[in-house]
Design a protein that fits this description.
By secondary structure, this protein is an alpha+beta fold. Helix content is 35%, strand content 20%. The chain has four domains: 93 residues, 2-Layer Sandwich (Uridine Diphospho-n-acetylenolpyruvylglucosamine Reductase, domain 2); 118 residues, Uridine Diphospho-n-acetylenolpyruvylglucosamine Reductase, domain 3; 115 residues, Alpha-Beta Plaits (2-Layer Sandwich), CATH 3.30.70.2190; 91 residues, Alpha-Beta Plaits. Strands 15-12-14-13-17-18-16 form a seven-stranded antiparallel β-sheet, with helices on both faces. A five-stranded antiparallel β-sheet has the order 5-6-10-8-9. It binds flavin-adenine dinucleotide.
Length: 476
C-alpha cells in the first residue's frame, strides 16, 4: 500500500532531518555529491534524491526513518556504493541514508572469536583492526571499500566463499531499525540458536528493503599465516570447468578457485601492467586460466596441498601448473579483483553475475558462448568457478539484443538449477529477470513478508525482488 502525502519539498525535508542529525550532516539539491547518486552498476542511471542524510547513532537512524515513514518519504540505505545492481541508488522522491558516520568496530571479542561492528565500517578498515589479533573476517568481495552493512544487505560472497561461505555464514546477530522506527535486536554472540523464525537470516540479503542495519555481530576466523597462489592454464574453458569437480573431490580446500577466460586475462593483466610469465609454448595453447588459492597456518600443509592440486589438475587437462612467487600471486589476485574495472574501461555494456550448481558450469559456459555468437555479441568472463558463480562482461550496445541474450542465459541457468544472481543481488537491475523466472508462490510470499516489515513501502523503493511501489515525484 502506498500512502500519498502532500509534497513536503526538498528544503522542508532537509530542514526536518537536520533537526535530527545536525545541519552539517544533511545535503540536498546541488550539495549532494555525485558519488551519492549511483553505485557501480553499468545499467542503472544515477538519481539525485531529495536529501542525503548521515546519522551517527541508531537513535538518529530510528528518528530519521520514523519521520520519513510518517511523511511518505522513501528511504534508501547506502554503504560504500560498490554494489553492482543499483540497489543503493535512491529515489528522487526519497532520501538516502549513508552510513559512513557509523563506521566503528565496537568490540573485538577474542574469547568468542566474534566482533561487533557498525554497518559503515569498510572491509579494508575491519581487516586492519583484526590483523593484530591474528583474526580475520572471511567475507571479501572484490572491493574492500564495501561496508559490512552493504555486504550484509547483499549477502556478499567473493573469492573466499568457496572455502569459507558467504556473508550469511558469518553474521550471527543484527541490530535493526524497522520502517516504523522501532529498534530491534536479533541473534547475538551465539554459535547456535534455535528459537523459531530467524530474522537475522531473513534480513541478510534483503537489500535494505526490510530494515536498516545499525549493528552487526560477526563470527571471525583465525588468520592464515601461509598462502600460495597457483596459476593453471588450460586449452579451453570447458576442460577447465570440468576439472573443478575432481579438484574439490580431492579433499584439498582451496581458499580461491577463479576462472579467467583468455580475453579477460589479457584485459586484467594489461590494466594492471603485469606479465603472466607463462612460457610461450604453453601460452600459445592456453585459452583459459584457473587461479587456485591455498591458505593454511602450516607451510608444510600448503606444499602438500599444492602437490595434490598439481596432480589432480594435471590429470584433468591442465597444460601446466605454476606456483607463483608471493608478490606475483598477490598482484595477479589483485588484478583479478579489478576485472570489473578492466571490462568497464574496455567498453562493456553490462557486467552481470549468474550462478548454477558447480557441476553445471561447463554447460552454462558452453550455452552462453553459443548464444553470444548467435546474437553477434562478445561475451567474456571470469568468476568464482568453485561456487558456480560466473561473471559475464557483455559487449553489445543494442539494448534489446543484449536483454534478449541475458534473458536466454538466465533462463538456461535457472533450468540448470541456478539463479539470476549469486551475489550481486536483484537491486534495480535484475527485477525483470527475477520476476520472469521465479515461482509465483515464492514471489507472493516475498510480497507478504515485505508488507509485514514495511507496510507503507518506505524502505528501498524500486529495489529487490518485490519492489515497493513509490509515490509520485515531488516538484524540484
Ligand atoms: C570491483 C568490484 C568487485 C566486486 N566483487 C564482488 C564479489 O566478488 N562478490 C560480491 O558479493 N560482490 C562484489 N562486488 C559488489 C559489492 O562490492 C558488494 O555488493 C558489496 O556487498 C556492496 O557493499 P557496499 O557497502 O558498497 O553497499 P552499497 O552498494 O552501498 O549497497 C548495497 C545494498 O546494501 C544496502 N545497504 C547498505 N548499507 C545498509 C544498511 N546499513 N542497512 C541496510 N541496507 C544497507 C543498500 O541499500 C543496497 O541495497 C564487487 C564490486 C566491485 C565494484
Amino acid at each position: 500500500m502506498t500512502i500519498e502525502h502532500p509534497d513536503p519539498g526538498p528544503h522542508a525535508v532537509a530542514r526536518h532531518l537536520a533537526e535530527i542529525v545536525g545541519e552539517a550532516h544533511v545535503a540536498s539539491g546541488l550539495r549532494i555529491s555525485d558519488d551519492d547518486t549511483h553505485d557501480e552498476c553499468l545499467t542503472v542511471d544515477p538519481v539525485r534524491p531529495l536529501a542525503v542524510v548521515r546519522p551517527a547513532t541508531t537513535t538518529e537512524v530510528a528518528a530519521v526513518v520514523s519521520h520519513c515513514d510518517g511523511h511518505g518519504i522513501t528511504v534508501t540505505a547506502r554503504g560504500g556504493g560498490t554494489g553492482l545492481s543499483g540497489a543503493c541508488v535512491g529515489h528522487h522522491a526519497g532520501i538516502v541514508v549513508a552510513f559512513d558516520r557509523m563506521a566503528s568496530v565496537i568490540e573485538v571479542d577474542v574469547a568468542d572469536q566474534m566482533a561487533v561492528v557498525q554497518p559503515g565500517v569498510t572491509l579494508a578498515r575491519l581487516d586492519e583492526i583484526l590483523a593484530p589479533y591474528g583474526l580475520f573476517y572471511p567475507v571479501q568481495p572484490g572491493e574492500a571499500s564495501a561496508t559490512v552493512g552493504g555486504t550484509v544487505a547483499t549477502n556478499a560472497g567473493g573469492m573466499r566463499a568457496v572455502r569459507f561461505g558467504v556473508t550469511r555464514n558469518h553474521v550471527v546477530g543484527l541490530e535493526l531499525v524497522l520502517a516504523s522506527g522501532t529498534v530491534l535486536r536479533c541473534g547475538g554472540r551465539l554459535a547456535k540458536i534455535s528459537t523459531g523464525y530467524d530474522l537475522t537470516q531473513l534480513v541478510i540479503g534483503s537489500e535494505g528493503t526490510l530494515a536498516l542495519v545499525t549493528e552487526v555481530t560477526i563470527r571471525l576466523q583465525r588468520r592464515p599465516t601461509a598462502q600460495s597462489t597457483l596459476l593453471v592454464p588450460f586449452g579451453d574453458l570447458p576442460t577447465l570447468a570440468a576439472a573443478i569437480a575432481p579438484l574439490v573431490a580431492s579433499g584439498v580446500e582451496p581458499s580461491m578457485l577463479e576462472y579467467v577466460d583468455l580475453l579477460s586475462m589479457a584485459g586484467i593483466t594489461r590494466a594492471a601492467g603485469i606479465e603472466l610469465g607463462v612460457e610461450p609454448a604453453v601460452s600459445e595453447r592456453s585459452s583459459a586460466y584457473l587461479l587456485v588459492g591455498l591458505q593454511s597456518r602450516d607451510p608444510g600443509q600448503l606444499d602438500d596441498d599444492a602437490a595434490v592440486v598439481g596432480t589432480v589438475l594435471g590429470h584433468h587437462g591442465a597444460l601446466e601448473v605454476y606456483v607463483l612467487p608471493p608478490s606475483a600471486g598477490a598482484a595477479l589476485v589483485e588484478a583479478r579483483e579489478r576485472a570489473f574495472f578492466a571490462a568497464k574501461a574496455a567498453g562493456a555494456d553490462d557486467i552481470v553475475d549468474v550462478v548454477v550448481p558447480r557441476s553445471a558450469i561447463p554447460d552454462l559456459l558452453a550455452r552462453a558462448a553459443d548464444l553470444a555468437a548467435g546474437s553477434g555479441t562478445l561475451v567474456t568472463g571470469c568468476g568464482h568457478v568453485g561456487d558456480g558463480n560466473v561473471h559475464l562482461s557483455v559487449f553489445q550496445p543494442d539494448k534489446s539484443i543484449r536483454s534478449r541474450l541475458l534473458d536466454q542465459i538466465f533462463t538456461y541457468a535457472v533450468e540448470l538449477g541456478g539463479a539470476v544472481s549469486g551475489e550481486h543481488g536483484i537491486g534495480r537491475a535484475k527485477q525483470a529477470a527475477f520476476a520472469a523466472l521465479a515461482d509465483p508462490a515464492h514471489v507472493s510470499l516475498l510480497r507478504q513478508i515485505k508488507q509485514v516489515f514495511d507496510p507503507r513501502g518506505t524502505l528501498g523503493p524500486g529495489v529487490g525482488p518485490v519492489a515497493a511501489p513509490v509515490s509520485a515525484p515531488p516538484r524540484l
